[in-house]
UniProtKB/TrEMBL annotation:
Keywords annotated in UniProt: Membrane, Transmembrane, Transmembrane helix
Segments traversing the membrane: 27-45, 51-74
Name under which the protein is recorded: DUF4175 domain-containing protein
Organism in which the protein naturally occurs: Hymenobacter profundi
Start and end residues of each stretch annotated as Disordered: 487-517
Keyword Membrane recorded: yes
Keyword Transmembrane: yes
Domain of life: Bacteria
UniProt feature, compositional bias: Basic and acidic residues: 488-507
Amino acid sequence: MSISVTSAAVEPGLLRRVARSYASRRTVQILLPFLAASGAALVAAERWPQAGPALLVLLAAGVIALVVWLIRLWQFRPEPLARRLDREFAELEDSTGLLLRPIPGLNLLEQLQQQHVAERLDALTAATPALLPTPWRTSLLLTSLFLVVAGVCWVVPKSAAQPAATVATAPAVPLRFVGKPAPAKAPRIQELKLLVTPPAYTRRAAFAAAQPSFQAPAGSRVRWRVRVSRRAAAPVLELGKQRVPLRPVADDSLAFEAEQVVNSSVLYRLRFAGQTSEDYAIEVIPDRAPTLQLITPKPYTLVEFGQKPQVGVRVTVRDDYGLSRARVVATVAKGEGEAVKFTEVATDLSAQLRGQPTQHQLTYTLQLRQLGLTYGDEVYFYVQAWDNHRQMARTDTYLVQWEDTTIDASGADISLGVNVVPAYFRSQRQVIIDTEKLLSERKGLDQSTFASRANDIGHDQKVLRMRYGKFMGEEFEESIGQANALPEGEKEEHHEGDGHDHGHEHGAPSTNANPSSLETTAALMDPYMHKHDDAETADFLEPAVKAKLSVVLSQMWEAELRLRTARPAEALPYEYKALRLLKEVQQQTRVYVKKAGYTPPPMPEATVRLTGELEGAATPQRRADVAAPASQPAVRAALGLLSRLRRGQPAAPDDAALLDRAGSQLAQAALQRPGAYLTALRDLRQLSAALRARQPVPCPECLPVVERALTALLPTPTSAPIPAPSPNRLARRYLQALGQP
């Protein structure tokens, strides 16, 4: 049996031809809509110049994606191709994959099947060149759609395709003129379009003003574009005191435009071919500085002993256009007296202002230890913020103080008899420091050493407790945290061996006296005797201070008990409470004594002040009656002219100059309050133009409006005193009857 293997040699080339045919048809299907879409994008970019960069970027991205897709399409991948052929054609009997295997690795049956599949695939290729189907319908529909879009973009005129943000599509604003209407054939302004471009820091888009009078942020660029009926001299823009001629537009012979940056409120009007428009106002909104409101902490914060050395800061920041930067500036004060050193530390908080919000709440924590503070130091801080326009604002300065319990009294205080006890507080703090140090070193100590050191700290606590016990009458070691009196027998022994005579020291009577008289004398003297060995009657301190000090002794005893039993961690809260109460006792027992010093003699003024003696006290004065100059003469002259016009009297053409001078002052007021004075200014311009042209008053009803506006510019007159009428005969007799001359 002989087997022909000639067909197996052409099998890889057969599959490659099928793949190449499919890739070429798919390439044409993709290129057709892509080329149509590219043409539409280019036409749209030519018609919409503002959108051109974005369209070109999209087109470039499409080209890159197309190239990547074509590279993957033209890569010959036989395995996926064989699987697809098996799915599409049942004649191949799911054996197309055998064409990819070498003949030496196949058995006899597989070689026969490989030859059979190769013959059928060759027949299918000869019968149908486009062996694998491709969807042409979708490609043709997309191509037609993009071609229609390109045709529409090409047909639309370029002037009508400008975006809404440009001047061409800005709505024409109504423009009114003063004076006599121009003849029908005279050149005139047909329309006015305004485009306002706010500065970049406002982050606002350009907009078209719908009315000639409008509002704009400070620093905005305003563009005026006017269209005239026929060519004539260029229109002139009168912007305040500036005269800006409008320049012709390149692509439109009947259009003129001008641009100006406005930083303050101003009035403007247009002049063209002998016509003058009414005055219109541009109200400029200034950029306000940021506002800061510090929520926490309070203006003065005291970090007490035992609290965490940190203070939270929360501040609310607002701005009209956006916030760009913020920081906290802290000034650390270390030392006392002339040895104070100041260090400034600034912390940037700009990371919290991402996106430049108009309102945000900043948070920050003052870490006193990281700032280098210790007990008794102070830190002054404030918060600064900047907006997009680089305007800065800051809060008031706030103070944070870390309480110090180790303040030593000065020698002057000792000489003035103040109760000096800071050394005791320092000793209690030393007990706390030793306890905390023992707890931090506990891991490196054995149990015996740890217990021994805790017992030593407990002994120090005992000595301190006994020292304070003297103030409570606890002069013996047996008194453990309580002020109990000694038994009668022990008290007598103690008095016999203390080395001084208590009876004579405290004013007690001699023991040689009569017992009955001694008892009577003792009863009388008992309220006045100083029994410092009795806890109930010891009078070193006030009752309120004694009560608090007794609590201190109890806390010390609790701390000593736990230190003696090697439990320093449990003793630490009692030590802190004892220290806090001792500080309160120190503040409560403080006494103020005025320092002695030199008292200067009283000044001579102190002997005569408020005595009623005014001789020689009056200062010389020079008086002269000077007539006050007339205020705003132009406004008063215009009011006189308006009064004559209301009475029907004729006016001369030169009287228009009076109205023009008053109109300049009225224009300044219209900048501040356009709603109150702009209408009156418009009527005044019409009246002035009519008088200059020797025409009658155009609107008699506008005379009261202009008169009221000019009257409001005058200062409020001062009320003159009303002279009292001279009394008549009946009044004189009445006054005589009352006893008055």
